[in-house]
Each structure stands twice: as structure tokens, then as C-alpha cells.
Specification:
The complex is a heterodimer. Chain A is built from 3 helices and 10 strands, in the order H-E-E-H-H-E-E-E-E-E-E-E-E. By secondary structure, chain A is an alpha+beta fold. Chain A has 2 domains: 2-67, no CATH class; 73-154, RNA polymerase II/Efflux pump adaptor protein, barrel-sandwich hybrid domain (OB fold (Dihydrolipoamide Acetyltransferase, E2P)). By secondary structure, chain B is of the alpha+beta class. Chain A binds chain B through residues 1, 25-27, 84-87, 117-118, 120, 142-147, and chain B through 31, 34, 42-44, 48-52, 59, 64-65, 67-69, 71-73, 98.
Amino acid sequence: MWKDKIKEIIYMLENSDVNEIEVRFWFKKIKVTKKPSTLNVDSSQLSSEKLNVQNLNQEESVNKNIDVPKDDSLKNLIEIKSPMPGTFYSAPDPDSASFVNIGDNVNIGDTICIVEAMKIMNEIQAEESGTIAEILVDNSNPVEFDQVLFKLKPSN
Amino acid sequence: MFKKILIANRGEIAIRIIRACNEMNIKTVAVYSKADKNSLHVKFADEAICIGEGPAVDSYLNIPRIIAAGEITNADAIHPGYGFLAENANFSKICKENGFTFIGPDAEIIDLMGDKVNARNAAKKAGVPIIPGSNTLSSVKELLEVAEKIGYPVMLKAVAGGGGKGMRVIRNVDEAEKGFNIIQNEAGMAFNNSEIYVEKFVENGRHIEVQILSDKFGNHLHLGERECSIQRSNQKLIEESPSLFVDDSLRDELTSKSLQLAKNVNYVGAGTIEYLVDDEKNFYFIEMNTRIQVEHTVTEMVCMIDLVKEQIRTYAGEELTINQENIDMNGHAIECRINAEDPFNDFIPSPKKIESLNFAGGIGVRIDSFIYAGYQIPTNYDSMLGKLIIHSSSREKALIRMRRALQETFIEGPKTTLPLLELIFENKDFKNGNFDINFLGKFLKKIKEKDNESS
């Protein structure tokens, strides 16, 4: 949960003129600061309230842009989610090749990964045919229920 | 001591356990359902793992997913809280088999105490008085014979029962013939076990329970009694410690018998033995709860002992550091349960969004809750929002303080039990300690009648 929050804050920082963000959330505090070298603020700008508002608006528009994929091919991707908490395995055993790689075509029923829970290897199968567009979890990492594991570009 | 505890629960009890762990320097893992994404226990724990959809069978009751969450976070113990899997013998066993310490008794003890007929026999063996009754009934004919012998009214109960389900009062032969099949079916559906038995029905009893704390070295302590007679269809609403009704000699009897039972079954951890006490101060064993209870807080306030910490310590294999002699019970504590339900409309649940709220504060006031302004109460779980606990030097002073605290407390959005609680704390009989388990039922009836007259 916190990892995602920090990523989000870093992203916001990178896409704005703001140099430092401090967030208090419940009992925890996160402070993210840009490298000093990127600090390039005209002190006259700081005093202008109007300009700050403008910057905020810009920031918002940047964020809006993210939601809209630039590439049409990234549209309509199907998310394949973990049906249970457990450990994600991309291959049947450490010596074998991964079940799937980015760009591979899969058919309905193809095993695409394993989620291990209580020493039981649960094979996760593709429920639609298509092309693997993204793999979001590294081998042998823990996953939660409903966490997105793959993004699939449907074939039709 | 444990390094990391997974809490297989939600709501206020999950937070209660996280608080104890924080102070003990133990890391915590929260598990949560998708419906609880914005719940406070998820934010307070060091780690949080989503384990399933909103319905409890897919999340908080789903053993493989909870165990998997423990595996991926490297927890070394699992605390079940109360409700959900807290008294599930199979869960205790599976935790153990998968290398986790279950912060609750072994499967054998849960099985023994979870089966009402076995528990009655264990109590009898320890010299604890039990309500006259039967073992598992095989037929209506047997029910009629036993009821004839012990005298009507009697109570038909599910062997695997609990939480006020699977029980019915039978006042005559006709009701016995009808009730037998109904309760058998109800028990089968609710507990997957259709065995039933019968007990004499004690009409004007009080519900009084004794808190027990035991370690693995055979030390057993009691922490006095709790008075829990203010209840509605077997759901407690107000609890206090000590009980005005329990005098020193009754307290001696109750606590020494409770300790004997704990010794006999080699109990470990925090446990509660519940009794029904009649007008003549005869007491009868009802059941033993092998978990931390909702109302443990009133005992904590009068004894100044953190029961959850002690419970964790005993299962970590540590010896109790407290002796019976140095448990100092001071003053009087009362707990009110604040539920999201409409007390003047058959307690219909009211799972709305909390628009705004204020909890009472000041000296002698404790709040154990998990709600905040903007929180949407999920529809999947029980309606308890929190507990308001008061401590003062005497019952009189505690009553005054509770009234003050109730006036300070408001929750906007859902309907809650708060207005009913305010009315009860103005009632003369309640204030004088003049009540039994029928008090709340009668009190609600009176309110309804008044309402009908005025409208």
C-alpha cells in the first residue's frame, strides 16, 4: 500500500514545479524531495499567488493526460487478477522457462502463471485469448487478492 | 516473543490487537476484504494483505487465504480476535500444522468447550453447578420425558450453538412437540450440526461471567466478574464490572469454581466462563468462551491489566508475571456498545456513511472504535461501531460519567444505539441495579407502547 503511495507522490513531484512534498497520513509521514540540482525557482515567482495557482492547474492537466493512453494499442487491455493471496511464480519450476513472456499469444485455458498458497500450486489460466501486453509482478513475489498480474490485449 | 502477528479479524478488535502489538514491539499484518479497503485496521497495521471479496466466507472466514497471507508476510503467530474463526477448532489445528502459533487454545479444548453437551459434562466434573437438563436428544419422546422430570418451562438448545442462535423456550407439551423439529433444522442450517439438548429455563436470571487468565505452566488467575444482563435476544448491550448483585461470598464461589474448571481442562490464555444467576443467588454454568471477548475492556479498567497483551504472552510460552494476590480491583467500569442499528425499529442495521462524529473524552473515558468521518460502513459485517467505556471510583460516579460521555458523543449518518443508551442511563431501575436478563426487552416494549399512545 505504502509503496504505491510513495510512487504516486514521486510521480506528482516529477511532473510539477514543486520541489518537495510532505504528506501526513494517519500516523505516518512521508517527505519526498527533488535533487537540489533541479532546483531552479525564481524567487519572484514564489511571491506571486496567481502563478502558483496556474502551476497547480498545469499539474492537474498533466495528471489528466496520464489517464489517456497515448498509444491506441494500449486501449481495452484486459486485466488478469490474482484470485487469492499467495506467491507468484512465472514458471513451473526454477529451471524452466516462464509460462509466458510479453508479446506471447495465449489461448483460453493456457496456464500463464502459478499462485502458491499453503504449499498448493494454483495454476492461473487465461480466460480470454490474446497477446500478453504487460507482466506486472516479478517471479516469486507475494501477491494479494485481486492484484493485477498481467495485462492482455484481446485477439478480437 | 513473537516478531510478527497476523490479525485474522477486522473492526475495533483488530485495532485493539494492533495497539497491544505496537506497545510490545511486535510487527502486525492486517488482512482485509475488498469491502474493508478503507477500514482503519488496514491503515494502522505495518502490512496489509487483501484476501478476498466482501462476504466473510470469501475473506475473514477463508482459512487457506488467511494462511497464505501469513506465509507471504512471514508472520509467526495468528490472532483471531473474536467472532469469525476465533472458536474454530479446525483453524487452530491448521495454523499449527502450517507453523503458526494460534493465539487461542488447541483444537481439543475448543472442541470440548464448543460442544455444549461436552462442556456441561466438563463443568459438572469440575464441581461447577449446571442447569438441570439432558445430553443430546434422540427423539421428541425423550424431550417430553426430560421436560416432565425437570419441569416446564425448558430451553431447547443446539449442541453447537452460540450467539443467540438455535435456542427456544418451550412452555408446554404442545410447544415441545412443535419445537423439536424446528430447532433441529435451525441448528442444522446455522451450525451444520443438528444435535440438540434441553435445559431447565431460568426465567429471571442474571448473566454474570468470570474472566480467566492461564499460562502454560499451570498458573490460573481470575480477574473478577462482569455483569452482562442488559441484552436483547442474547446480544449484550451494556456490561459492567463489578456486578452490584455479586457479594463477596458469591464472588468467592464463582471465581473458585471457574478456576477449578480452567485447571481441569488445562486451559491456556484468556477465557471467560458464563453463568446464569437466579434471584436466590444460585448460579449455573452456561458456557465457556475460549477467546478474548468484546467486553474484556471493563475488566481491564478495574484491574489495570492489558488482557490482550497477557493473552499474547501466555501463547508465546511466557509465565504469568501477575499473582492472584497482586491483582488490585479498583472502582467501577461500564461499557456501552454503539451499534449501527435503529434501536426503535427492531434494531434494523443501518450501514450508512458516517457524515460526522464526535467521541467523548476527558478523565475516565475510553473509546475502542474504528470509525471516522467519511467512513462508509460495509454491509457485510456486524453492526458494532465501537465501545464507550467509563471508569470511576464507584458505580454512582461511573453512571454520572457515562451520562456525560453519552451527551458528548454523536454519530451522524447511520442510526445508532446511542439514543437508547441515553434512555437506559436515565432509568431508575437500571441505576439502582434492579434488573435481570429481561430488563431490556421490557424496557423496549414500554417505549413502543408510549410511542403508540402519543401517535
